[in-house]
Amino acid sequence: MASIDGQMRQLASNHYKTCIHTADTSRTIHKDVKHILDIWKDGMGIVCVQAFHNLIPAEAFTREAAMIDAIGLPRLKNEKCGMYYGVVASWNSKLKRRLGAFLLYRALRIFITQNEIQLKPTDLK
Predict the structure, then answer these.
(1) What confidence category does residue 7 fall into, taking pLDDT thresholds of 50, 70 and 90?
(2) Measured between alpha carbons, how far is 121 from 27 in angstroms, rounded to an integer?
(3) Does residue 47 sit in helix, strand or coil?
(4) Contact 70, 43 (CB under 8 A)
(5) What SS3 state is found at 86?
(6) How many angstroms from the chain centroid is the CA of residue 103?
(7) With 0-12 CB in 10 A as exposed, 13-18 as middle and 19+ as buried, what is 54?
(8) What's the alpha-carbon Rg for the chain, to the nearest Å?
(9) pTM, rounded to two decimals
(10) pLDDT tens digits, residue range 36-88?
(11) Helices 31-41 and 4-23 sit at what angle, rounded to 10 degrees?
């Protein structure tokens, strides 16, 4: 998870690296690229939910951190927890997780409304 611009840049970067890897198998595979290749090998695609738009970076990072805490870092591919900014940084863990759960619920509603669009290798050519 990340801010929308950052999320799209990261997704595009991982897809680019994945495409390069499929063309040149002599390169070492980054674990994120390997994860994408494994998903594609299983016949699935990558889903990018654009839930929150026009946020300043501090707000986006705070929301990302709350959602990571709500899900739990061990259940994600993220290497570290997010950073909290502003008044939310002073909240206790329970309130931060509740905020994350609320934001995930809002993202789910947006996901359901937008329909699922999976990005597959054929979409990148």
Answers:
(1) low
(2) 18
(3) strand
(4) no
(5) helix
(6) 14
(7) exposed
(8) 16
(9) 0.72
(10) 889 999 999 888 888 888 999 999 999 999 999 999 999 998 889 999 999 99
(11) 70
